[in-house]
From TrEMBL, chain A:
<dbReference type="Pfam" id="PF00528">
    <property type="entry name" value="BPD_transp_1"/>
</dbReference>
<keyword id="KW-0813">Transport</keyword>
<keyword id="KW-0812">Transmembrane</keyword>
<feature type="domain" description="ABC transmembrane type-1">
    <location>
        <begin position="74"/>
        <end position="265"/>
    </location>
</feature>
<protein>
    <submittedName>
        <fullName>L-arabinose transport system permease protein AraQ</fullName>
    </submittedName>
</protein>
<dbReference type="InterPro" id="IPR000515">
    <property type="entry name" value="MetI-like"/>
</dbReference>
<comment type="similarity">
    <text>Belongs to the binding-protein-dependent transport system permease family.</text>
</comment>
Automatic annotation (TrEMBL), chain B:
<feature type="transmembrane region" description="Helical">
    <location>
        <begin position="73"/>
        <end position="94"/>
    </location>
</feature>
<dbReference type="InterPro" id="IPR051393">
    <property type="entry name" value="ABC_transporter_permease"/>
</dbReference>
<dbReference type="InterPro" id="IPR000515">
    <property type="entry name" value="MetI-like"/>
</dbReference>
<keyword id="KW-0472">Membrane</keyword>
<keyword id="KW-1133">Transmembrane helix</keyword>
<dbReference type="GO" id="GO:0005886">
    <property type="term" value="C:plasma membrane"/>
</dbReference>
<feature type="transmembrane region" description="Helical">
    <location>
        <begin position="12"/>
        <end position="36"/>
    </location>
</feature>
TrEMBL record, chain C:
<feature type="domain" description="ABC transporter">
    <location>
        <begin position="5"/>
        <end position="235"/>
    </location>
</feature>
<dbReference type="GO" id="GO:0005524">
    <property type="term" value="F:ATP binding"/>
</dbReference>
<dbReference type="GO" id="GO:1990060">
    <property type="term" value="C:maltose transport complex"/>
</dbReference>
<dbReference type="InterPro" id="IPR013611">
    <property type="entry name" value="Transp-assoc_OB_typ2"/>
</dbReference>
<dbReference type="GO" id="GO:0015423">
    <property type="term" value="F:ABC-type maltose transporter activity"/>
</dbReference>
<dbReference type="InterPro" id="IPR015855">
    <property type="entry name" value="ABC_transpr_MalK-like"/>
</dbReference>
<comment type="similarity">
    <text>Belongs to the ABC transporter superfamily.</text>
</comment>
Length: 279, 291, 363
């Protein structure tokens, strides 16, 4: 800012530096776990002061490689995350086109009902859902883990907004260009929603990766755990665990994928959470 | 006659059909069936007939239920204002087009993308007696160590700290987005009117983001009423149920004691409380004087 | 194959609101027709009905010897250029132009031939691999026209295509459109609210107002022999001045018109039989007035200097407003009262229903 722009729109340097100081509280716990994960387990068992003195090692991480469980959970999480994301993208795009672009009897009423779905808390449906999946024998399956996340209305809401924002002349031009309804959707409109697809995709993946309650009750077979549930099962016997260093390394290992996705796609993640709300 | 391409056609609904099938099967049906279940005697293996309000009566006569209600209310009443307040502070502090501000926004939002499992693991490494970061700090200062996770009062407090740390990103981002929508010429007009920084804040900024603040509070109320993973993983509701929230009570009933009917009844009660709280909050805040 | 357009008794309603009422119109093969009217007159709706983007409530539309109103837009043999251009943002210029041809499975080499030819005509051949957001407004406009040309339609439909261009570019594009029409010889319909565009481009202008066609005629007919009071007031700048008439008698060369508080004006308009003075008015264009020693006493309120001429905006003793014209070197100042003579052959007489009467021989 040069001296010739005196108005900073209410922004204050003091507040900024306070926020910087307070961010230590954000960093410190993460840094603590990171340091623990590189500290020798043996030394830690005598006292966590060892984190400040060492010896430091990579052994905790190489132990993960040797631990088939953690890897299996990691792959499970990838499969569930990818499957759920693909499902949400397909369903939301189609539904967003129908709600945002087409006319059909009952469209408005049904859209309002779907929006009401945004307000339904998970605990109001999880017990019956658990029973339905028991009846259909879907527990401890990938499909069973992916499906509930596909019923959430957030993606439909987001895609409907995006389809609505495309000028109607674009469809009309395509109609005059002899394009069929499907071709208009597939060739003309869908490519225009790619930014929204990216946003929704990343958001859904993070959501699926981090989901806790549903996999907790649906995936009871240790081989079907997602990483989130697997790490939770490791920390149940926190005191007599295989070692704090190993546990810390697992936490870092599980956090890394989401943090990397977040750092790369930060802009999309932020759009996803703030986009629908502020308009 | 409407334009042919804009005509209302049932076949157009086919595009929405796949989602609607999933929506109905996994959201609408469970929602209705949940109400039905709450009126049934039911366990893991099946239904044993209509029992009327029996399940509700059992829940409402359960001292543990009321304890969990008190815990949850206390938790919501304390964490929501803190989340909105810190969110507003961070929004104001980091609403600048500088690299530093962007970086700090990234830092404050980063915890939000972590799973509850990792958040609780991180905070247990901070809170555990003897080995935790805080414990070490207390020793260094020569203070009496506190069993944060196993002491009545402190356990719910610790869950709250982890929750605020985990959830602060969303309020901050929503408030930032609202702040960035305020037209710059409003501030220029205020400056030309000789408004002080504080007056600009209370007369320009706050009224402009009022709607978003209400929205943020509503979202947080709905979310914090559903406190579950943090409490289950950090304290498991203890000691003596003093940090057990309602969702954990439901989880115990339905998935540990397999009393599905009672769990369903408690679920419906929580749903009702959330609806009333969210609507009440909205009603109170949106009635205030428009400045 | 003929590309004449025949519109018969067309009616359009949006719910209870009628936006077009019993419209009939014949457009000849190769003609350039402009729909002119104020916003909300229904001109865009009429164009979109020909395109198939709006349904038809009553009446029919034929293109050549084929009735097209039941057909979907793509099968009517028309192409449209939208006000916002409506280019596909994610496709290159070439893909934008090829899309319609691909949809009807035109052979690849044929698509390429037509695209290249159209790009050459419009001088956008160096832009073929760019996407719309990398183009200027004028370039986008050309691409939109190119997308229409490659389809080799029987009729081109333009929906206010120049309104998003700046003034200089608009003038140039207007000229180029006229050239394009001469070159292609196709039927073209152009919708606008800008009378300059209508006057310069049209073979015939269709003036529309309030759900109906007011007049169909060449630009000169519409300007010099407006059919109604509305057309007279809408076409021409500055707008024609209207003075209320209190009495009409037979004068030496035509109707002698009395304007209260002003006096009598002799005109060359033959007195229509049974013409009633009640509600009638007389219309005078600024260019048909000259300063003189006799004539109407005009008190000047505002002077508008246009360089080659000067417009005097003022009022007559009865309070009615009149715009008169003086030379570019006019010395009149605001507040002066000047005498203004009126060319009796160029005035227009309107009856109470707004129907116009003109001097014979004026063309």
């Amino acid at each position: 800012m040069s001296a010739t722009t005196p108005i900073q729109h209410g922004h204050s340097r003091t507040l900024f530096w306070i926020a910087v100081a307070v961010s230590v509280l954000m960093f410190a716990p993460m840094a603590w776990v990171l340091v623990l994960s590189f500290t020798d387990n043996e030394a830690l068992s005598r006292g966590t002061e060892a984190a400040f003195t060492g010896p430091y090692t990579l052994k905790n991480y190489t132990d993960i490689a040797g631990n088939s469980g953690v890897f299996r959970w990691f792959v499970n999480s990838l499969i569930v995350g990818a499957g759920q994301t693909a499902g949400v993208l397909v369903l939301s795009s189609l539904a967003g086109y129908a709600f945002g672009r087409l006319e059909w009897p009952g469209r408005k009423v049904i859209f309002v009902i779907v929006l009401f779905g945004l307000a339904v808390p998970e605990q109001a449906v999880i017990i019956p859902r658990h029973q339905i999946f028991s009846t259909l024998d879907l527990h401890n399956t990938y499909i069973g883990l992916m499906l509930p996340g596909m019923s959430l209305p957030f993606g439909v809401f987001l895609m409907t907004q995006f389809f609505r924002a495309i000028p109607p002349e674009i469809d009309e031009a395509a109609l005059l260009d002899n394009a069929t309804r499907w071709r208009i959707f597939w060739k003309v409109l869908l490519p225009l929603t790619l930014p929204a697809q990216a946003t929704l995709g990343i958001f859904t993946f993070l959501f699926a990766w981090n989901d806790y309650w549903w996999p907790l009750i649906s995936a009871t077979d240790k081989d079907m755990y997602t990483l989130t549930i697997g790490i939770a099962s490791s920390q149940v016997n926190f005191a007599q665990t295989e070692g704090l260093g190993f546990l810390a390394a697992q936490a870092v290992f599980a956090a890394l994928p989401v943090l990397i996705v977040y750092i790369i796609f930060q802009k999309h993640v932020v759009t996803a959470v703030s986009g629908g709300a502020v308009k | 006659m409407a334009a042919p391409h804009r005509q209302s056609r049932l076949s157009n609904a086919l595009f929405a059909a796949p989602y609607l099938v999933v929506f109905i099967a996994l959201l609408v049906v469970p929602l209705i069936w949940g109400i039905y279940l709450s009126l049934q005697k039911a366990d893991l293996f099946g239904l044993y007939g209509f029992t009327g309000w029996t399940n509700y009566a059992r829940v409402l006569n359960d001292a543990l239920f009321w304890q969990s209600v008190r815990n949850t209310l206390l938790f919501v009443v304390v964490t929501v204002p803190i989340l909105v307040g810190i969110g507003l502070f961070l929004g104001l502090a980091l609403n600048a087009r500088t690299g530093g501000a962007a970086f700090m926004r990234g830092v404050y939002f980063s915890s939000t993308v972590l799973s509850v499992t990792i958040v609780t693991l991180i905070w247990r490494f901070v809170f555990i007696p003897g080995d935790g970061l805080l414990s070490l700090a207390f020793q260094a200062m020569g203070w009496q160590p506190i069993g944060f996770l196993s002491t009545e009062g402190w356990s719910l407090f610790s869950v709250g700290v982890a929750t605020v740390w985990w959830c602060i990103g969303l309020p901050m981002i929503l408030i930032l987005a609202a702040l960035q929508q305020i037209p710059g010429d409003l501030y220029e007009a205020a400056a030309l009117d000789n408004a002080s920084r504080w007056r600009t804040f209370t007369r320009v900024t706050l009224p402009q983001i009022r709607g978003t603040l209400i929205l943020v509070a509503t979202i947080q109320i709905v979310m914090q009423f559903q406190l579950f993973g943090q409490a289950q993983l950090m304290t498991n509701g203890g000691p003596n149920g003093t940090s057990r929230p309602m969702v954990l009570y439901i989880y115990r009933a339905a998935f540990e004691n397999w009393d599905v009917g009672q769990g369903a009844a408690a679920s419906e009660l929580l749903f009702l409380i959330i609806l009333v709280a969210a609507m009440g909050q909205y009603w109170v805040t949106s009635r205030g004087p428009r400045t | 194959m003929s590309a004449a357009i025949d519109i018969r008794h067309l009616t359009k309603r949006f719910g209870a609101l009628t936006v077009l009422d019993d419209i009939s119109l014949q457009i000849e093969d190769g003609e350039f027709v402009v729909f002119l009217g104020p916003s909300g007159c229904g001109k865009s709706t009429l164009l979109r009905m020909i395109a198939g983007l709006e349904g038809v409530d009553e009446g029919e539309i034929a293109l050549g010897d084929r009735r097209i109103d039941p057909l979907p837009p793509g099968e009517r043999g028309v192409a449209m250029v939208f006000q916002s251009y409506a280019l596909y943002p994610h496709m290159t210029v070439r893909q934008n132009m090829a899309f319609g041809l691909e949809n009807v499975r035109t052979p690849k080499d044929e698509i390429e031939r037509r695209t290249d030819a159209a790009a050459k005509i419009l001088e956008i051949d160096h832009l073929l691999d760019r996407k719309p957001q990398m183009l200027s407004g004028g370039q986008r406009q050309r691409v939109a026209i190119g997308r229409a040309i490659v389809k080799e339609p029987k009729a081109f439909l333009f929906d206010e295509p120049l309104s998003n261009l700046d003034a200089a570019l608009r003038g140039r594009t207007r000229l180029e459109l006229a050239q394009l029409h001469q070159r292609l010889g196709a039927t073209m319909i152009f919708v606008t609210h800008d009378q300059v565009e209508a006057m310069t481009l049209a073979d015939r202008i269709v003036v529309m107002h309030d759900r109906r066609i007011e007049q169909i005629g060449t630009p000169m007919e519409v300007y010099q022999r407006p059919a109604t009071k509305f057309v007279a007031g809408f076409v021409g700048s500055p707008a024609m001045s209207m003075l209320p008439v209190s009495g009409v008698t037979q004068g030496p060369s035509g109707a002698r018109v009395t304007v209260d508080g002003v006096g009598d004006i002799d005109t060359a308009v033959p007195l229509p039989p049974g013409f009633a003075a009640k509600g009638a008015s007389i219309g005078i264009r600024a260019e048909d007035t000259t300063p003189s020693d006799t004539g109407l006493p005009l008190t000047v309120d505002v002077i508008e200097r246009l360089g080659d001429r000067t417009l005097l905006h003022g009022h007559l003793p009865d309070g009615s407003e009149l715009v008169a014209q003086d030379t570019g070197r006019s010395t009149v100042t605001a507040g002066d009262t000047v005498r203004v003579a009126v060319d009796p052959h160029a005035v227009h007489l309107f009856d109470a229903d707004g129907r116009a009467h003109h001097a014979t021989g004026a063309d």
